[in-house]
Write a structure and sequence with these properties.
Length: 165
């Protein structure tokens, strides 16, 4: 049960929250959060309509409905992700999110991981990235930050999926 105090009054809220602790040390987490926030900023510039073009461009009504629907979905996912990333406990290794927003956050995390993959980890193959089969010591600082950001986001995503299962 959550309690929300507004204007001196209180309101009981029965929202179900998903909460868990990350395995990463909070000092590492605080050092990569700026990288994650930077990648999140790039999401607003990410052309979702190019990645998911309407399959039938000739039908203007369908194309318009397609674009509007995708825009609403991406917007909701990004809002859920923003709430997760702005969590007051996240810098200390604790994730909190309303259960109703978890699925949107999972989709937003996927999108954010793709942005980090494209911008910071493009030189690594998918297999190397997923298996950790590369020399991190010889990697640049940007690759290291990108890699740890990618891992932390994956951990959050996997925990959310597990909590919803």
């Amino acid at each position: 049960m959550c309690i929300s105090f507004k204007g001196g009054n209180y309101r009981l809220s029965w929202k179900k929250m998903i909460e868990f602790q990350l395995q990463a040390d909070s000092r590492i987490l605080r050092s990569i959060l700026p990288k994650i926030e930077e990648a999140f900023t790039l999401l607003s510039k990410h052309p979702w309509h190019v990645i998911f073009p309407c399959p039938t461009i000739e039908d203007e009504d369908l194309a318009s409905a397609w674009d509007q629907s995708l825009e609403e979905e991406f917007s909701a996912d990004r809002i859920a992700l923003a709430k997760l990333l702005k969590g007051k406990k996240l810098p200390y290794g604790y994730v909190e999110i309303d259960e109703e927003e978890a699925e949107g956050a999972i989709r937003g995390l996927s999108e954010l991981r793709l942005i980090i993959r494209q911008n910071s980890l493009a030189d690594l193959s998918d297999a190397d990235l997923e298996n950790g089969d590369f020399d991190l010591q010889k990697s640049s600082g940007a690759v290291k930050l990108g890699y740890f950001s990618y891992l932390i986001l994956a951990e959050i995503q996997e925990n959310l999926i597990s909590c919803l299962s």
